[in-house]
Amino acid sequence: MNTDIPLPGEARTILPGLRWMRFPLPFPPSNVNVWLLEDGDGWLAIDAGIADDETRSHWRTAMAGEAFGNRPLTGLLVTHFHPDHAGLMGWLSAEHGLTPMMTRIEWLQARAVWYDTGTDMLQQQAEFARIAGAPEAYSAYLLRRGALYAKAVAPLPRAFRAIADGGTVTIGGRDWRVMTGQGHAPDMACLYCAELKVLIAADQILPRITPYIGLHAGEPMADPLGAFLATLERFRALPDDTLVLPSHGEPFTPLHARLDALAAHHAERLDALAEACRNPSTTHALLPALFRRPLDDRSLGFGLGEALAHLRRLEETGRVERLPDADGVIAWGRR
């Protein structure tokens, strides 16, 4: 879709009553989209951006300028708990007297992670990395680095309004159906308007990059990749010419080709990882099967999480098995 990309603090009109803002991020993918939906005398925002001074400044510029057109922020819906989406949820809610909308699982996850900053949580992450075969120096790095979530997320609101899969949110006189997605986040809210044929897809369907799918220490037997692939199939029920508004990247069509590409990408990675497991190896030793370049400490946790998500899918489908050693370090081998 040939639409000028908005500068921070500005907005571009996608359709009447629907505007696109974009804020910078201090980490890849470098930008996050925020969507403004006209709602009565004001605007409802989809997502809040990360909690830093730069993003706060861009919000103030937008609200004081043409982006908002002298209309107030009157509503907020946060798609999921990740910092680039929920970071300024509390600040915007307090500044404008809002009760944000969010799925219950995402709300509870945000609160759990925000308050879970103790040493025991860091030790759990370090042990999770150890049994994946990561070097001892990485576990030490995790303990030294400390918890990150609360540094990128402002204090959370005390209350929220729950939305759920299959429910309807009426915004500006139009009905938006809530469609939740799993895999990238536990219960991420996407919104579909049949009248407009528009899908606000959050991080579930991105135009050029693949959403991060990772396994985490708090739920080590989950199957996030299986959940993600199942979600893609559910979204296939939407019309192919749906206009997709992603949280990263530009609006795009068609929908089904992108669903196909995402599924094919993961099928290829599963095959590559299964082949690498012919020689039983730890998760850490298997990383070159998925990543072309070595991962530094800042990205190793994401790499291990992504590899483990694929290994769990292979385990669930009977293609690999785990082979723990006497110290609990797990190798993965072909079945």
From TrEMBL:
InterPro entries: B_lactamase-like_C, Metallo-B-lactamas, RibonucZ/Hydroxyglut_hydro, Sec-metab_biosynth-thioest, WH-like_DNA-bd_sf. Pfam families: B_lactamase-like_C (PF21221), Lactamase_B (PF00753). Residues 31-248 form the Metallo-beta-lactamase domain. Signal peptide: none annotated. It comes from the Bacteria. PANTHER family: ENDORIBONUCLEASE LACTB2, METALLO-BETA-LACTAMASE SUPERFAMILY POTEIN. This is MBL fold metallo-hydrolase. The lineage of its organism: Bacteria, Pseudomonadati, Pseudomonadota, Alphaproteobacteria, Acetobacterales.
